[in-house]
């Protein structure tokens, strides 16, 4: 039934956004010196990734199991979503998806990089939320 499908999509979008918000909140904890910058940038990347996936779910666009913010942005653009160019620099977040979580896998991350990553996540999150709100 179409109503049930629409409800299921709304619930899935809400769950993706709930998890994105949780990562977003953690990414904002720049001043908390007990949290390594590598963990902060990971959560910034995850917030952006999950928010973009929520938007793709809303538009019923299939996406692969990926951490690539660039690929997710391309899928959004291919789906006709306007404004992807305004957050195109968020592709840099992809670096933080895996390697930075493990010691010795990548260069250390600075607090300034964590701040920049959080700001990118803010922009992606705001863009996604504005589209989701305008489509409700």
Brief account:
With 136 residues, the chain is mainly α. The chain is built from four helices and no strands. 35% of the residues are buried.
Structure explained in plain terms:
The protein is elongated, with a radius of gyration of 15 Å. Helices cover 61% and strands 0% of the residues. The protein has four helices and no strands. By secondary structure, it is mostly helical. The longest helix has 26 residues, at 2-27. The chain has a single domain (2-135), classed as Up-down Bundle (Four Helix Bundle (Hemerythrin (Met), subunit A)). The two termini are 20 Å apart.
Total count of domains: 1
Q: Which spans have pLDDT < 50 for at least 5 consecutive residues? A: none
Shape-level CATH architecture: Up-down Bundle
The helix-strand sequence is HHHH
Approximately how much beta-strand content do the residues carry?
A: under 5%
Share of helix among residues? 55-70%
Q: Which class best fits the helix and strand makeup?
A: mainly alpha
Main sheet properties = none
The CATH superfamily is identified as Nucleotidyltransferases  domain 2
Level-1 CATH class name: Mainly Alpha
Q: Find the CATH topology.
A: Four Helix Bundle (Hemerythrin (Met), subunit A)
Choose one word for the global shape.
elongated
> What is the count of DSSP helices, taking H or I runs of 4+ residues?
4
Number of strands: 0
Q: How much is the average pLDDT?
A: 94
Distance between the termini: 20 Å
Radius of gyration: 15 Å
